[in-house]
Amino acid sequence: MKDTTYNYTLQELLCLRTFDEVVRSRITPNFSKQITEWAEKELLTGNDSESLLILASLNFESHPIDYEVNEYLGRYQREVNVVNPSAELSALVWLRIQLTLLMNANSSEEVEGRLAFFSIYALDYSPRAFASIAYRLNNFYWELYDESMPAFNSRASSMSDDELKMYVKEWCEPYYRVLINEDWLSILTNRE
Q1: CA distance 175 to 178
Q2: C-alpha–C-alpha distance, residues 192 and 32, integer Å
């Protein structure tokens, strides 16, 4: 599910790319487009890097070419001394973004779609905290939407949209608080 309202930082975008490489799948659609949109916003804040200008100009294309985006992104990273994040940090940042999107869902359908992702994919990557939270999100999906027996209505079906969104937000909040805290991220990404 694409969310157009989330404003990614460069670090978050690099984490998304690294996480995609770890899972060997394109979980983050339109990465190149997201990078070029980020570059455009950076230019508007007064950053006048030539590499950034070229990156932003690639946003004129509806589908920027991945190779070109990666080339100029790499140049910009070298220019400002930004290294790619570790796989462990990337997994936790990806999870934090998913929790943010889930907590800010606009409808019960969006909540279900975002939670369903965790019931479809086995996300048992390092670090252990990532796998643990992903597993809990999978269980949370089934807690809310399991209608395996014909006479059984899911818990979510008995809630209004607002009640469901509030319940999901309250459920996600403790995990989100951990994942936005830099000290916790540092502890959780140490080799276990």
Answers
A1: 5
A2: 33
**What span, in angstroms and rounded, lies between the C-alpha atoms of 6 and 8?**
6
Distance of CA 60 to the CA centre of its chain: 24
Q: Which two tokens stand for residue 95?
A: 């999870």
98 vs 141: CA distance, rounded Å: 14
pTM: 0.86
- Under a CB-based contact definition with an 8 Å cutoff, are residues 140 and 169 in contact? no
Residues of the chain predicted below pLDDT 50: 1, 4, 192
Segment 159-172, tens digit of pLDDT? 889 999 999 999 99
Tokens of 106: 């606009």
Domain ranges for the chain, please list them: 10-80, 87-189
Long-range pairs, 107-115, Cβ under 8 A, ≥24: 107/161, 108/156, 108/159, 108/161, 108/164, 108/165, 110/1, 111/156, 111/164, 111/165, 111/168, 112/144, 112/145, 112/156, 113/1, 114/1, 115/140, 115/141, 115/144, 115/145, 115/168
Other CB atoms within a 10 A radius of the CB of residue 63 amount to: 8
The alpha carbon of 175 is separated from its chain's Cα centroid by a whole number of angstroms, namely: 14
Q: Provide Rg for the chain, Cα atoms.
A: 18
- Inter-residue contact 88 to 117 (CB < 8 Å): no
